């Protein structure tokens, strides 16, 4: 399941099949438009070069934080301060909505700039750590992929961002490596 923050950090794309193709989608107008639409956020597109630099720096910090949590390291007080500072940059309006399942309180982003978007991404990451478990944050075991994801399986053993893509690819690679090893031993 995609989350706002994982979708954002995974804008740093690497070819999961092992090719040389990598791209930073963060600076692409199409990616920005799709990201904002998918997550119902507002900001001017394309982001200015200054905003793009701030987005990249924020993404790098968030990737580093997710990596530390995936390694079993706890959220430090410095990490908490950083997240709090990012979340503080965005304001929300509280709105009570009636739906099929009853009343629901929604937090609607008040700003329409990339600073607000970063605050929403930081808040979603904080919610994941608080309501979920930071130890469930994973980096795909396919070294070519590097996708960051949240392991929401009951067993807490998910190794790949997608079992049908990276999981299958790695299974085939292990099989072929074993075959090659067996042939060399004959």
Automatic annotation (TrEMBL):
InterPro entries: ABATE, ABATE_dom_sf, Znf_CGNR. Residues 136-179 form the Zinc finger CGNR domain. It comes from the Bacteria. It holds the Pfam family ABATE. This is RNA-binding Zn ribbon-like protein. It comes from Paenibacillus pabuli.
């Amino acid at each position: 399941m995609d989350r706002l923050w994982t979708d954002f950090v995974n804008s740093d794309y690497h070819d999961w099949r092992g090719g040389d193709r990598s791209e930073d989608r963060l600076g692409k107008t199409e990616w920005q438009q799709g990201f904002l639409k998918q997550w119902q956020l507002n900001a001017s597109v394309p982001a200015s070069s200054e905003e793009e630099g701030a987005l990249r720096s924020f993404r790098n910090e968030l990737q580093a934080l997710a990596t530390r949590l995936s390694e079993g390291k706890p959220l430090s007080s410095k990490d908490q301060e950083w997240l709090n500072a990012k979340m503080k940059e965005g304001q929300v309006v509280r709105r009570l909505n009636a739906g099929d399942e009853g009343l629901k309180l929604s937090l609607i982003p008040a700003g329409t700039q990339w600073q607000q978007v970063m605050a929403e991404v930081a808040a979603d990451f904080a919610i994941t750590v608080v309501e979920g478990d930071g130890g469930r944050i994973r980096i795909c075991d396919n070294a070519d992929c590097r996708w960051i994801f949240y392991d929401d399986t009951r067993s807490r053993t998910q190794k790949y961002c997608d079992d049908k893509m990276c999981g299958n690819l790695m299974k085939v690679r292990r099989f072929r490596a074993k075959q090659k090893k067996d042939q060399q031993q004959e």
